[in-house]
Structure formats: C-alpha cells, structure tokens
# Entry
Amino acid sequence: MTVTERHVGPLLEIKGLKTHFFTQDGVVKAVDDVTFQISHGQTLGVVGESGCGKSVTSLSVMRLIDRPGRIVAGEVLLNGEDLLAKRDADMRDVRGDQVSMIFQEPMTSLNPVFTCGDQIAEAVQQHTAVSRREAWDRAIEMMRVVGIADAKRRAGEHPHQLSGGMRQRVMIAMALSTDPDLLIADEPTTALDVTIQAQILEVMRDLRTKNRMAIMLITHDLGVVAEMADEVVVMYAGKVVERADVRTVFGTPHHPYTKGLLLSIPRLDERVERLEVIKGTVPSPLNLPTGCLFKRRCPYRMRVCDTAPPYQEVGPGHFSRCWLTPAGEEPAVGADATGDEAEAAAEQLTVETR
# Structure
C-alpha cells in the first residue's frame, strides 16, 4: 500500500475484542474486552506473563483462531476496514501483504516438504506481480538481510536441515519480504543469540523508518521493549491492565502488576541480594477471581478490589485498570467500599479509550 493510499487515522484499531474458547470444562475468556490502537510507523510492545492473552490477541487480528476458540465480540479495524467482517478469501489477501506475522514456533509454522526459499518466494508471488525468478531472488535477498550465511545454498534446504535460530530467521525473512504495513512479531528473537537478535531488531527498525511500517511486538523481554517500543500495553488474564508510552511505563508505572514485572528485572546500577518476585501464580482462566483479577497476588489489596476496578486515566495518555488513585493512594470511594457504591465509582472513573 502506498503512502497516498493510507487511511487517515490509526493503522490498526482494536475495539472491545473478545476471544473465548469453549471447552468441555467451561469457557476460557482468553481475550476479554481488549482495546488499543497502533499508528503508522509506531511500535507497540505487548507484554505480560504466559497465558495472559498476548498471542491470542495477535491471532485474532489475523483471524487465525481455531476451534474451540471463537471471536465473540469487538472490531479489528485495519485502515478503517473491519477485518472481522471480511470473507475468508479477502482475508487471505490481507495476510502476508498488509499484515505479516512472525510466529513463535518456526518448526511448526514452516512446511517441512518445501524448501525455505520456495516458501518465501511463494509469499512474494502471492502478493506482488513478479516472476518466479524475481520472487526467488527476493527470497535469497531477504535471507541475507536477516543474517543467514550462504543464503543461496540455504534457500534450497528444507526446514529440518536448519537450526532453530536459522528457522526463526527464515520466518522473519518471509514476514518482511512483502513490505507489510503492519508486522506482528510474536517473540521474534527468542531462539536467537544476542548478536543476531540485535541485527534482526535493526532490520525491523530500518523497515519501520523506510516504509512507515507499524510493529506489534509481543515479548517477555522488557529490554527489547525498552529499546524498540514507542508505547506499551501490559496484559494480565486476558485484559489490558496498563497502557502508556514506553518512558512512562518504565519510569512511573501505576498498576501493581507492571511494577512487579519491572522490579523482577536485574539492574546494572543497583545491587540487591534478591530480586523482587510477584507472589502466587496466574489464576486459572476457568476460575478467575471476582473483581480485580490481580488481587490475590497484589501487595496493595483492599476490600474494594472485590469489585471490578475502573480503567482510568492516571496521567496524560496513561491508563491503568486499578483502584489506586493516580498518586497511588486509596480510592476516594474508600478502601472498604463494596457493592453498588463501588460499582458506581468504577463506572464514573472508567474512561473510553481508543
């Protein structure tokens, strides 16, 4: 898509997205009322513990949710068009062209019976008007870009002949080969050593600058988020619990869960005997607590936390799903408020975000 064709406004808007899995044991609300947006040329970091809904959110954007999962509510607007309303045939034109994705597991994402070069070239031919030879040359070029030595020979090899890190680089080359508007990168550097990781991040940065490509970066590595992201979304148990620009999240986090994540990271400028830990475990998605989903693990727990907290603006462009005031104090309704009074206060504090 050329610059002149770009939609005026955010590239991607996710509004009230809900993706549930209907299992024999009950309904798993893997993504529950998630809302955020990504602008052209912006990198959004999505962080949280395993099972918090990061990957399911990205798969929902791509419309790749398998049974027993189903997107039950919400909108996913790409350049103003709702992807959830598109036909399957139209979505195939979107995937790999306007939106590309780097999946977590390259061995299960690559086809074992085709060579790596064939798979990249197929993606290029599917979405661009080039010859078979031009697509093959593009595949070799992208394999070189992501740091694969002797790319011409490697392009003729099958996935099982490559190491895990090289397979991951093939996936990255495939995703970047069509110059997408939006790149969804789900743990893109997990299997890579630090040197190649830095190289891949540099490639992603260059493409972002050159093509105004937006990036949705899903990762556990907060160091990568600090280096790459413009804005951060923190997820917990299927919900967005905090959202702000990267400096705010790392400098003045508000939600206790975000604070816990940051305190668990070692720092070069501090010497401590033991790192902080977030006590307890993520609740079972089949048995979520009432009210605040984080309350069982939260050091600030109050009686009012038995009521679902507001999603409030605690600073300019800084949103947090917590009862604590912007200054980190007890809410005006009172720490022991329950029932209708607390629900009314939460409704009054909750803001509608885009």
